[in-house]
Amino acid sequence: MSKKKSTTLFEDSLAEIEQLVTQLEQGEISLEDSLKSFERGVTLTRICQKALQEAEQKVQILIEKNGTHNLESFADE
Fold this sequence. Notes:
Elements: H1 3-26, H2 31-65
Helix pairs in contact: 1-2
């Protein structure tokens, strides 16, 4: 998948998740539609997670190519 296509897919998926969350928070859709929105959100979340994992792998490859192997966690400790 090309860089531009994966970036667009990630950004589009994230935007759609935000729209789904807004709809669900408003509470004005039926239970059936809420479940469909939730299922769609789960699918979109998986797409985003995959794109982020691919980006992380690319970063690790680039770091290893530069001879640096000291990766630090971004998480607060």
